[in-house]
Predict the structure.
Amino acid sequence: MDHSGHGMTMDLPPFTLGRGLAWSADPFFLIACLLGLALYGWGVVRLVRRGDKWPVGRTVSFVAGVLSVALMMCTKLNDYGMAMFSVHMVQHMVISMVSPIMLLLGAPITLALRALPPAGRGRKGPRELLLMLLHSRYMRIITHPAFTIPLFIASLYALYFTPLFDALMGSQAGHIAMMVHFLAVGVVFFWPIMGVDPGPHRPGYLMRMLELFAGMPFHAFFGIALMMASSPMVETFKNPPASLGIDALSDQNAAGGIAWAFSEVPSVLVLLALLFQWYASEERQARRSDRAADRDGDKELAAYNAYLASLNTRGG
């Protein structure tokens, strides 16, 4: 059966990294990636022409995020992922946990808000609509941990351990929808935790770390369940094409190992990003305090010294 719509999965030779990285573009994801890069590039150019600065690191991060999606969906990895659980799991993990982190560190919403022109008094243009969406009740709900953490967990268990996965893998549209879902779930999960863009739900740094670690153990348990299973658990991958020369159970165990290992990778990336943001926030706060002290001639320090002096005279 031609699952992928671009390459017969029945005729795939045994997997090697070289074969997996060969070009085989999914039209939907190719267009989406090119459009994402073009819009981001337009925003950066608009700011630079205006004389404003935009951090190079953010551009690099966003481009890396888009390229990571293209790597998973516009190469033969996508073809092999239709027949091999292990390759599919690499796609899933990168698109739901690595790509969203890189895209969010690129701050695309902040860029859009700075680059899009205001529509004028009484009118609503793209910038105003984006602001309305950011401040909407809908956005408050989908970025709240009571929604994002269960969704993140359900995307693993409810998908792979029910017939839903096989139904989606049976068509090109279903497969695309599933991959878009993985990316969207990753974005709404990581956005309140370490996103640079403004968002409706933005707790303190300690709470963000707790949110991050709340979802990760379930991820590890999912991987362990696949690694320890004594029979293939997903119908789609039960009978891999003979040309691949693989055993379905061994491949499923490998997929479990990949899921388990990947639960650590984003944790480290996000933790580093969080610590850096926390440090930068403290630095900004310290600079604000210094500026305030310069303005009021260090009134706070003078008041404290006067207080100490009064204690001293009382003690004397």
Summary: The chain is about 70% helix and 0% strand. The CA atoms of residues 105 and 196 lie 6 Å apart.
